Amino acid sequence: MFEIFIGNAAKKALKNLDKPIVQKINKAILYLRNSPVPVKEYDIKRVEGTEDIYRLRISRYRIVYRVHWENKAINVIKIDKRDEKTYRL
Known about the structure:
single chain; YaeB-like fold; 34% strand; globular
C-alpha cells in the first residue's frame, strides 16, 4: 500500500472545485493507494518524457502525480482542467 501526499497546489485546486467532482477526485486518489500504475478504470497514463510521473483523467480534470517506488509514496503534484499547460511541471 502506498502513502499519498497532496501538494499545496493540488490542495488549493480542490478548494475551488464543485463538491461532486471533488468526491470523484478523492475516490480516485484513494484508489491509487493500492494501484498507482496504469489502470483502465481511471485512464491512467505515464506522462511522456518521464519515468515516474503519471496522469489520471476524471472528466475534464487531470490529476498529475509522481510515484516514488522505493518509498512506496505518491505525491499528487497538480489537479487542473485539461489544457496545453496541464503537463508542464
